[in-house]
Amino acid sequence: MAKIGFAILGCGAVGKHHITALAQLPQGRLAAVCDVREEIARRFGEQAGVPWFTSLSAMLEKQRDIDVVNVCTPSGAHLEPALEAIAAGKHCVVEKPLEITIDRCDHIIEAADRAGVQLCAIFPSRFGIAAQAMKETVASGRFGRLTLGDAYVRWWREQSYYDTGGWRGTWKLDGGGAMINQSIHYVDLIQWYMGPVKAVTAITGCLAHQRIEVEDTGIAAIEWANGAVGVIQGTTAAWPGFKRRIMISGDAGSAVLEEDAIALWEFKERRPDDDAARQRLAQGEAMGSGAADPMAFSPENHRRQLDDFCSALTKGTNPMVEGREGRKAVEIILAIYKSAEEGRRVELPLDPGYRPGQRKT
User: Fold this and answer.
1) Quick one: pLDDT band at residue 321, thresholds 50, 70, 90?
2) If residue 324 lies in a helix (H) or strand (E), which one and from where to where?
3) How far apart are CA 183 and CA 161, in angstroms?
4) Res. 290: pLDDT tops 70
5) Number of H helices, E strands in the chain
6) Which range has the worst mean pLDDT, 63-67, 223-227, 355-359?
7) Is the dihedral of CA 55, 58, 62, 65 positive or negative?
8) CB-based contacts of 158: which residues, under 8 Å, 6+ apart?
9) pLDDT, tens digit, 9 for 90 and up, residues 83-111
10) Residue 164: band (very low, low, confident or very high) from pLDDT cuts 50, 70, 90
11) Which residues contact 108 (CB under 8 A, 6 or more apart)?
12) Phi, psi (5° rounding) for residue 153?
């Protein structure tokens, strides 16, 4: 059976991870690369031994063995290339966030539905062994009635991180700051575990960086629809950077996920395999951390997610993180921005037309 052909659009930092992950896929292969910067496109194409392009339109027209386009452009530039790829009949993988506003997310989702192609939003943190064990345990009901669900991303970024990436720290192309760029992975994880959000009350600010339009620090009180409460905290202003953490409690148990390992695993009703599970999950996986370096993490979970996407295409099923799943974290983060801007509690669902960063002062 022929391998599924992937094309990478955007050969920046995360595009490199996609290329590395694809090289390890039994069901997939890299078919082409594209970047508007000719020297970058040429270098990556020659290194990988595949055709390279500086135009998505040209790549779609000339490279007929492309089945999937991986959109790895800046966050606020996902919509247009995704729509072009979908219109050409290609399946689409979009890096996080799916897009930076709800209506732009919805345009991509609706286009994929109409075209009958698969859409995948990249959230590799869901594919860690410990993260999936947490999901299975929440779903089993072992925590009892859920009471608390928290996510903490206390990272550090030097000023140079924003100064050298022209689109970073802007509302137009980054869509926000520490919440939508760095913290979104754990916003996705905590909502995957806890379910829908009822309302948020938030504060955000730029506390440690200059020359950016967006927040480098934010905190939100969360009212989960299941009656539990929680906190989402995200920052790039906590030197030297710390491990990401998820904390879940109920009236029958508590657990803590730190990066790719379980740091706490305690339940009222003990089971014979608890000690072995605790020991296995506490060891974690060698995935690295982006706490102080945006690229200091392994592409392994990208590989797992792309492998899941290949399996979905082969079997005719939905991938684990299809487009509507990718939309959820975006809506929560936009509600956080709206609450911080307006100084009030904000209920979900949110108006799809909401645009952060446009409130007049």
Assistant:
1) very high
2) helix 323-342
3) 16
4) yes
5) 11, 14
6) 355-359
7) positive
8) none
9) 999 999 999 999 999 999 999 999 999 99
10) confident
11) 78, 79, 82, 83, 86, 92, 94, 98, 99, 119, 323
12) -125, 95
Query: In the chain, what are the helix, strand and coil shares in percent, each to the nearest 5?
Result: 40, 25, 40
Q: In terms of Cα–Cα distance, which of 168, 163, 197 is closest to 180?
A: 168
Take residue 49 and report the two structure tokens written for it.
């031994």
How far apart, in whole angstroms, are the C-alpha atoms of residue 67 and residue 69?
7
> Which one-letter DSSP state was computed for residue 350?
P
Pairing of strands 68-71, 91-94: parallel
Q: What is the pTM of this model?
A: 0.96
Q: How far apart are CA 99 and CA 78, in angstroms?
A: 6
Q: CA 78 → CA 32, 97, 104, 118, 280, distances in Å? A: 18, 9, 9, 16, 38
Q: Is residue 200 within a helix (H) or strand (E), and if so which, with residue range? A: strand 197-205
Cβ-defined contacts of 36-45 (< 8 Å, 24+): 37/11, 40/11, 41/11, 43/11, 44/8, 44/11, 44/15, 44/16, 44/19
Q: How far is CA 67 from each of CA 60, 94, 96, 201, rounded to the nearest angstrom?
A: 10, 14, 20, 43
- For 320, how many CA atoms within 13 A lie in the half-sphere containing its CB? 20
326 touches 97 (CB < 8 A): yes
Only one residue has tokens 């391998």, namely 3
Domains for the chain: give ranges and CATH numbers.
4-124+300-322 (3.40.50.720), 127-292+328-347 (3.30.360.10)
Q: Which helix or strand (DSSP H or E) is residue 94 part of?
A: strand 91-94
Q: What's the rounded Cα separation, in Å, for the pair 16 and 106?
A: 27
As a whole number, the mean pLDDT across the chain is 95
Give the amino acid at 194.
Answer: M
Tokens at 201, concatenated: 């009350």
